[in-house]
Amino acid sequence: GTPTVAGNPVSKIYYTIPIAGYVRIVVYNSMGQTVKEMVNEFKGIGSHTAEFDGTGLSSGIYYYKISSGSFNAVRKMVLIK
After folding, report:
1. How would DSSP label each residue in 12-66?
2. Looking at residue 54, what is its pLDDT?
3. How far apart are alpha carbons 53 and 11 in whole angstroms?
4. Is the CB of residue 48 less than 8 Å from the CB of residue 22?
């Protein structure tokens, strides 16, 4: 899909949880190193927003992984400062 573009350097990631449960969203750099943990908590059913603050990070390509129960997805985002 289309990568999320994070600029100025705060952006929001929107996600929906079909079953209440523990959610974790982690941001990785292009070398696979963890740079930020955005969410690590129980979330109820519905739509949620996580705020990504790229202050202190270099412009470039990053990936974020959303995990909830048996669901795992990795998405690409571009940080432009």
Report:
1. EEEEEESS-EEEEEEEEETTS-EEEEEEEEEE-SEEEEEEEE-TTSPSEEEEEEE
2. 87
3. 7
4. no
pLDDT at 81: 74
Segments of the chain with pLDDT less than 50? 7
Sign of dihedral through CA atoms 54, 57, 42, 65? positive
Q: Which residues make beta-bridge pairs with 37? A: 26
Cα 68 to Cα 19: distance, rounded to the nearest angstrom: 9
- Cα torsion angle, 47, 14, 16, 69, sign: negative
Q: Which amino acid is at 69?
A: G
Cβ proximity of 78 and 60 under 8 Å: yes
pLDDT at 47: 95
- The span from the CA of 77 to the CA of 60, in Å, is 8
Q: What is the pLDDT of residue 26?
A: 97
